[in-house]
Amino acid sequence: MCTYLTEKVSISGSGKGPSGWFRVTDASVYFDHPVHAQAEHTLNIDFLDPGAGPSARVAVELTAESARALAKAIQATLDSAPPGLC
Amino acid sequence: MYDATLAETVTIRGDGGDEIEAYLARPMSHGPLGGVVVIHHMPGYDPPTKEIARRFAAEGYNALMPNLYHRDAPGASPDDAAAAARAKGGVPDARLVGDVAGAAAHLRGLTSSNGKVGVIGYCSGGRQSFLAACSLPLDAAVDCYGAFVTGAPPEGMPLKVGPIKHLTKDLSCPLLGLFGADDQHPSPEHVAELEDALKAHGKTYEFHSYDGAGHAFLQVDRPSYRPEAAVDAWQRIWDFFGRYL
């Protein structure tokens, strides 16, 4: 089904899209039908700059299992960074 | 047999007279031909759904697929437009009806038209096909596994649409429903609820539910594709539109 379940978060950083690097200000995280990944539902993340239009988007579609592994890896990486750096 | 077809992007008048992009696929024939409004699924106005429009043309129908996300992201790629539209909670029902009305009028205005227009939709478009058929004078409607015709969206879902079973009394044409028995949205219970409503209002309908098939069993580029169910379902579609268009 189309879940439309979405978490939105303000972010600060950059992403690289088809036209090169651009700043990203927002992320949408949702569990729904993918466009490309071969799974019925995936955890999808859009890194966006809405001010630059809908094409300013870096998209990933991950299986639930790999999304959890990624979240864990992000957390572990941040936790292991030297104190004061992040 | 002369079987040439033409498929191209055109501009049509949609809801509120807005100019929107649409994909028109039609036989190069004088007709008279029935018309089909193709309502795309949530991933949008994408190549696989354009392929479906061309399939209708190859079978002898004028097919027109409006880009329901055109206003949300004019000129953007289908996946970017779909992301922009979903961030807004999907297509508003009133706008959908207006866009299908515009597409139906465009089809009826083609010189090869026989004046009849049906509608078919997939996934979220299945619900929208039912919605259009309850809101507009049409000749046939096909609902391919549309969720939330019956059954409310789960708590917390930011979907800006709700169940539309109460519109059943206004259904303007025969309805063909194609469902996967393993689907949860719509579940077999949701399908049965819709069937009860259709019976109660004396509507002409035909439902087929396929064992071993879930949601989106017609979508050839997804793991949900179930060839056996899909082949039968397409045969039902040709038979149904053949009778009413």
Helix content of chain B: 25-40%
In the CATH hierarchy, the architecture of chain B is 3-Layer(aba) Sandwich
CATH topology of chain B, by name, is Rossmann fold
The largest beta-sheet of chain B arranges its strands as 1-2-4-3-5-6-7-8
- Secondary-structure element order of chain A, as H and E? EEEEH
Order of helices and strands of chain B: EEEHEHHEHEEHEH
Radius of gyration of chain B: 17 Å
Beta-strand residue percentage of chain B = 15-25%
What integer is the average pLDDT of chain B? 95
Folded structure, characterized:
- Chain A is α+β, with helices and mostly antiparallel strands and about 90 residues long.
- Chain A has one domain.
- Chain A contains 1 helix and 4 strands.
- Chain A has a 4-stranded antiparallel β-sheet.
- In chain A, a hairpin with an 8-residue loop joins strand 3 (about 40-50) and strand 4.
- Chain A starts with 5 loop residues before the first strand and ends in a 6-residue tail after the last helix.
- The relative contact order of chain A is 0.18.
- Chain B is an alpha/beta fold and about 240 residues long.
- Chain B has a single domain (about 5-245), classed as Rossmann fold (3-Layer(aba) Sandwich).
- Helix content of chain B is about 35%, strand content about 25%.
- Chain B contains 6 helices and 8 strands, in the order βββαβααβαββαβα.
- An 8-stranded mixed β-sheet of chain B has the order 1-2-4-3-5-6-7-8, with helices on both faces.
- The relative contact order of chain B is 0.13.
- The chains are: A alpha+beta (about 90), B alpha/beta (about 240).
- At the A-B interface, strand 2 of A face helix 2 of B.
